Fold this protein.
Amino acid sequence: MPTLYEQIQSNKRRSAILIGLVLGLVIGVVGLYSYAVRGDFFLPIVAAIIAIPSSLIGYYSGDKIALASNRAKEVPRDEMLELHRIVENLAITAGVPKPAVYYINSGALNAFATGRDPEHASIAVTSGLLEKLDRSELEGVLAHELSHVKNYDIRFATLIAIFVGFLVILSDIFMRATLWGGLRGRNNRGNSGAGAVLAIVGLVLLIVSPIIAKLIQLAISRQREFLADSAGALLTRYPEGLASALEKISQGPPLASAGNATAHLFIANPFKKKSFSHLFATHPPVEERVKRLRSIA
């Protein structure tokens, strides 16, 4: 049975390999489609010119956007000293810099971590979480979020969101190019049969690829939630604290400020709705998470 540390390292490797394979496939499809329709690689270049600046903005400012979209306000140390002390103590134990602490004025019970690395991380908690959880439960939640920080899950979440956004941009560009220009270029030079087939195949894959990428994002996010639960329990040495917190969180009201773009960042589904398919769930079932935590000796 692999140790927690081995699982974390294995998960990082599998995630990187998976992203690389999908990205390679998409680049190949983009090139195939462009070459079949136009006889050149102009469209991928246009897509890159559009997507790269927005990706860089997302990478360096994604945490600020996530915090602002959820109406999180940074909390001075003297206003919530106990919260800062808990975060500080856990950060020391985890061996990471203390993240910035943010507060969301909402009766919902939830929290999330964001940032591109441990040196630029933030943790946000709701007022409902602070009011309803006891100290051991709050420590469990914060340890879970710090585990995301330590394991660079926050960077991965940012990168995968950018990746999905890039695919959406590509699909949109190629759809518009096809609608405006039709099957031109090489097809008009006598290679219409093969060119049309390649173009159709490429177009279908480009339409489907954002959906596939989104499913990959959700699947990996769910796996990382399990790992952060285990790592958080290891950090506090008290799995019951997080297990009990998750049960309370699952019974709380939805978070009004949450949106689809940031839902996967939270410790639990902020919408409180059951997905029609497990494939489209942003989080693993709370019951399964609690069961796993309580099975930890």
Remarks:
- The two ends are 14 Å apart (CA to CA).
